[in-house]
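Task card 7
Instruction: Convert sequence to structure tokens.
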Amino acid sequence: MSVVRTSLVVASVIWLVGGSTPLRADGGLDLDYGLDGRSVVGFLESDSVQLRALARSPAGERWMFGDDSAHRSLLYISRHLADGESDPTFGDAGSGQTRTALPPNLITQTEAWAVEGALVQADGKPLVFGGLRPVDDETGVFPGLVCRLAVAGNLDVSFNGGCTLLRSFLGTEETCLVADVVEAADGKFVVIGNCVGPTFASRPFITRLLPDGSMDFDFAAGAGMATPLIPQALPVGQHFSALALRSDGLAVVAGHFETAAGGRADRDVGLLQFDGGGSLDAGFGNAGVWLLDESGDTDEFARDVVVREDGGVLLLAEREVADLGSGMAGEQLLLAQLLSDGTLDSSFGAGGLMLDAVGDSLGLGSRLQALALDVGGRPLVAGRRLPVTGASSSAGTEFWLAIPATVIPQADTQLLISADVATTGFVWNEALDIRLPFSVSPGQSTVVSVPLAIELDGPNDSVFDKGLRVTAEAPITLNVLSGRSFATDGSLILPARQLGREYRVASWGEGGGSGSSFAVVASAADTTITVTPSVATDTRPAGVPFQVSLQQGQVYRLRALPNTDLSGSVISATRPVAVFGNHSCAIIVFGAPVQNPECGGIVEQMPPVNHWGLDFLNVPTRQRASGDVVRVFAQQNNTVVSIDGQAVAVLGGSNFYEFSRSAPSRITSSAPVSVMRYAQSCRVDFPVNPCIGDPFMLGIAPLTQWQSRHAVVLPDRDFIGTYLHTLEIIAPQAQIAEVRVDGVSVPPASFAAIGTTGYAYAHVTTSHGAHQITAQAPISVSVYGFLQHGSEGYAFPAAAAPSGGDANADDVLLRYTEHGLRDATFGSNGLVLLDHREAFGTTLPSFDNVQQLLVDGSGILVGSATQNAASGQSLMMSYRVEAGSLFRDGFESD
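Output:
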């Protein structure tokens, strides 16, 4: 946080369990503000506007700013009076709303306007910052932006023509994003951000602008901008997040940095201090840098920073945790307090650090957004809380994968990446010197091609330095497509926090090429795996366990003899690993042989045993009248498998049951199982050309892992033929009218009942690219595509980053004592929550994404992006809570 910046401070209000009206007290809604404490804004032009920033003018007006993936060049603006009512002197026809378009010289292609924050100057003019994002795989220059508006909401051309464009010039192509801006006492602006390009690693920057928006060339030794890389971290993955100014003009920057030590890589948080000239201040920490390395395979993200009156610095960070202690993944809160010289303050927490699990209540996707100090100097943390659930989210910030070998003609592996927010990241392998940066726009997909050298094409029963690590600054969803140039298969990649230590392999036997195989990727150093192959290979006997030692990023691969099947092989590990089952060119035929069967590469990431389930629904693959092959894998002895209520098999701990079915079926078991579906070779259904589709393997998610929102990506394969892209959706029959694809309802007539289960399924044809599938109850979504002699398929068992009215997220606020303990006098042991469903007159939970907070006299003004669960419309909302003397002032001044 900064002296004047308003874009990251958030708060929450008391929420009484059961949805009762909040109390009118400190933490309760100020009922004199807006309508019962809230001002809710929607735009007729779009129902997908997302609030990104909230600011207040010296005269008391409240400004809200949003962007919209459907109208990419527009900035959506709303202005309200101090009482929360729309300002009748502003906007179109006195509506209090307007939209401002970036000029054509800035939007030269179809870039997307990504807003990160805003502040209002003393003269009442807002400053909005962020950057441009590429759309539809565009390439070129996408600069960071700092734009100033006139009080009427239009661009102020006296500020460097309206917007200052910022880039590093480290490459001819790059994407930059401004992360934070602070207005200094002399009217200049200190700016931090990050750039990434195809020819250079991620590079943070710090610069200073003059009051007219031009670059201050007295900064950074005449360059105007510094692009520092700290030597304590790797040259990739260095990222600036938040900024605070000291009263003497020194800038304190919070960030997170990729580090490597002892054969492991992780992400650590840190603080940098810059002097007035843009150089690192040698009097702070270690040559201007303080880095927290707790010597573990953890990922931390810097979120906010404040400077105390005594010169101390307080950092807010968020830690991803694979197991909160209940077997569920989630987030934890980390506070670090430093003295003015950059050393840890032993009077705070445990040696200067405080880690709070928040009662193990912060589920995946929670976000600790902001940090502030109240009038007594007590830390206040605010953000978004998602509940901890058993469902395994497919979104994450770190992934590990391996690319199996296939048969010629080979194609470069494609990684399909999507996200709910603008973000950047890397695909990298140190051994092969692969460092591929990427950037993603909200609601869009980015494709990264990986060289063929990464394929596991070496000797059998070997360890390779070919693990791919994918990291991102915000949660992304990752899919991989690999195989032949016309016959690929795909897999959804699990984030690192969802990896496990015990697996059963699913593959296939018959076929060509290198045959059935599996690969194990170590996500952590000093990993030992124990493998019990289900069949004999040319190097290992069947049923005899053996061990292999792996370091982080290494891959072990075992290949079967021709036409034998490694399915059912058992893999256990001392630390979390990723496991992939595949066949280089499988011939999948159930029953009588067919003439000239087509083969195709199949691959799927295996779910760890702790992700298995007891209840599954399987529906037939489109254009496969002869049905699919289904395999049910067991972990425990005496596992009873039933189909449509009839027991069909009793399995041992490493066995599987195989059957073919052309009709929908319900699969249940007495102990947890994993279910895989195999699309048969096209000659089974098409004995003569055209032969539509090749085999693929697809994991089926148990009902307990279904989610009400899915962000999926379908690959662009139209360049090799007419591709049939299919979304396979299974939903409760009573809820099919509420299923939407990209906001458009799926006609109920498209659904067919699955017997008497109470569920129904639909096959929806759609285009390639990113799509959103939502419902008001948990649903299953799988995707696959067919063309002549080609296919791929993969499942989406969980949401990318839950949002929308069908999900649930509460505003969360915590307060600590000055020594880092929970303040028991605040809320419930230092915690208050709020859900906004009552504002929309519905019992369905709202999804609220807190963006900012402004201290507002005796109250707190909060800005939140929310969605009406009843209508599905995204809305911009501000609300005011009673706060008394909670904060010392509105801008955390020193």
